[in-house]
From TrEMBL:
Keywords: NADP, Oxidoreductase. InterPro entries: DHFR-like_dom_sf, RibDG_C, Riboflavin_Biosynth_HTPR. The keyword Acetylation does not apply. This is Dihydrofolate reductase family protein. The lineage of its organism: Bacteria, Bacillati, Bacillota, Bacilli, Bacillales. Residues 2-197 form the Bacterial bifunctional deaminase-reductase C-terminal domain. It comes from the Bacteria. Pathway: Cofactor biosynthesis; riboflavin biosynthesis.
Length: 227
């Protein structure tokens, strides 16, 4: 399983224009070529994953709008199953998998989703077990590549479990700020350098409207050599 964290960020690493606000205004900086790049990347993966907060603030479709019949499966993890049932990804014709926990599972909602042609996976007792989830997606669904367009909390879980193989950032030349704003990675964070997740810069490309940056995960032996 190859997992890519893919995000549009400001210079200071913010994902939105403020706490609880949508990330959609950032896309106004991109031209059609930039948007095409994003959608073609979606067409090259098996699935795209976003968290509950993205569904609440952006209500996206998460489709590939530049290539026909190349839409990724939408995967929505939520430990409490508290998704709005009128969300676009739960009401359109696209394939969606909602992932929840044993404690959060609600049969009534799950049945509604199944009637709409959606799927529901229970993975973890009180927190979504992402390591187990990705293994299940690979072994039972045949998925090989997953694109994570998460907010700070989802990204934290992916990084904390050391699951992200690479990171692709489209960095806009703007400063947003805000001490309570969403950043690329939120969560608990690390207070010891030895615990941090290390990546290597493999691509840096200055575009007209943004800087494209790509990082790949350092293997354990490379981390040891770096120290």
């Amino acid at each position: 399983m190859h997992i890519t964290i893919f995000s549009q960020i400001s210079i200071d690493g913010k994902l939105t224009m403020g706490a609880g606000k949508s990330s959609k205004p950032l896309f106004s900086f991109f031209n059609q070529s930039d948007i095409t790049y994003i959608h073609k990347f979606r067409g090259a993966v098996d699935a795209i994953m976003v968290g509950k907060n993205t569904i609440l603030t952006d209500n996206p479709f998460l489709t590939n709008r530049v290539e026909e019949n190349k839409n990724p499966v939408r995967i929505i993890p939520t430990k409490t199953f508290d998704l709005p049932m009128d969300a676009n990804v739960l009401t359109d014709d696209g394939r969606t998998i909602v992932v929840t926990t044993e404690q959060g599972y609600q049969e009534e909602k799950a049945q509604i989703l199944r009637e709409r042609g959606k799927e529901c996976i229970v993975c973890g007792e009180d927190q979504v077990n992402f390591r187990q989830l990705f293994l299940q997606l690979e072994e039972q669904y045949g998925m090989k590549r997953v694109m994570v367009e998460g907010g700070g909390q989802l990204n934290w879980h992916i990084f904390n479990e050391d699951l992200a193989n690479d990171i692709i950032l489209m960095q806009l030349p703007i400063i947003i700020g805000g001490h309570d704003n969403v950043t690329l990675v939120d969560g608990d964070g690390y207070t010891e350098l030895a615990l941090t997740k290390q990546y290597k810069v493999v691509e840096l490309d200055q575009k007209e409207n943004y800087t494209l940056m790509r990082f790949v995960k350092l293997q354990a032996n490379m981390q040891t050599e770096a120290v």
